[in-house]
Specification:
There is one protein chain. By secondary structure, the chain is mainly β. It folds into two domains: about 40-155, Immunoglobulin-like; about 165-375, Neuraminidase, CATH 2.120.10. The protein is about 10% helix and about 40% strand. It has helices spanning about 1-30, 180-190, 290-295, and strands at about 40-55, 60-65, 70-75, 80-85, 90-100, 105-115, 120-125, 135-140, 150-155, 165-170, 195-200, 205, 215, 225, 240-245, 255-260, 270-275, 290, 305-310, 315-320, 325, 350-355, 360-365, 370-375. The strands form six sheets. The protein has a six-stranded mixed β-sheet with strand order 3-4-9-8-6-7, with no helix packed on it. Strands 10-24-23-22 form a four-stranded antiparallel β-sheet, with no helix packed on it. It is elongated, with a radius of gyration of 33 Å. InterPro entries: DUF6242_C, DUF6242_N, Sialidase_sf, WD40/YVTN_repeat-like_dom_sf. This is BNR/Asp-box repeat protein. It comes from Xylanibacter ruminicola. Keywords: Signal.
Amino acid sequence: MKRYISTLCTMLVCSMLVTSCLKDSDEKNVQYYNDTAIASFKLALVNRYVHTTSSTGADSVYKSTLSDPVVFTIDQQQHKIYNTDSLPSDVDINHVLATITSKNSGTVVVNYPASDGQDSLLYYNSTDSIDFEKLQDLRVYAQDGSGYRSYKVTINIHKAQTNKMIWEQKSIADLPIDTKKTMWEQIAINAGMKQLIGYGTVETYAYNNEDQLMVSRDNGETWTADSLDEDATWLPTENFAFVSWPFAANDSTDYQLLVGVNNNNSTACVVWRKIAEYSKHSMPSKWVLIPTADHGKYYLPKMDNLNLVRFNSAVLAIGTDKKIYVSRDQGITWKTSSKYTLPDELGTNNLSATTDDDGYLWLVGIDTGEVWRGMIIE
């Protein structure tokens, strides 16, 4: 029995010695890095306070959020972090959640200036908001405590008001020229048409001398009467406007609107729409009159010198009543908004409107010659 106890004690001692040796070996293999840096930086959540005006003219503010809104650049040479695409002017940078990672598991620290002039250091936590207006710098400390890197963080914000039209007066030389429209006007005249309506990707439309709505699908070589789902007496044959754009719901498809004045309605413009498909096996489609009842109280009122443009993913109607009417449902309803307004210094209501490939809205005073270029910063 004593022999077994002696053997057991020997085994326990050996086990303890081996464990001790392994522990010493593990401690010697732990490596603490002296090199670190901010590896990535992005804004996880930013509050935005948007000012709006109701239909009665009352001001109101609603809160929305931006998640990862812009890309940030990290300049490791100059120790700077900044965004090249500016944030909207109505964001709150005093309470921002940020996602920050570091090289070699460095410790990220937020540094605010203290009232006594000393540094006020706080450990970074992804769930704690950062006040970037007060932030002095962002630091990342090496694992071995040998030093840190300091980064200057700059969040660029639009100085101009966002979510509202911004207008700039330009010269007639700056105005984009629609050479394709000029070409089609000449083709329509040569074909004996009374007036060009407009053109899409494949189909072009015009009125003939009998006020029939004609279509050409072969670059103006031939013209035929287009199909309608309603009596042609409801077509707008004077003071009309047309717009066409690629229909996002289907490939090889244009969504088109024809809007204008018709004596069958004393207050509202008539609105026709056509979904024109042009893939290889597509069937010809027809023009559909949107019933006045569908507009409800949000109809497009009659006005002179009507313009129709596709701008900022909406359809805008501009006439002579000093307002911009916006349709976000492909011509069913038309509303005014504090977001879409004409230039304050505009000298006429007799306007021509167009857009360009760079996302600008252009206005030309027909009787004054003034030119305005507008955009919206979201």
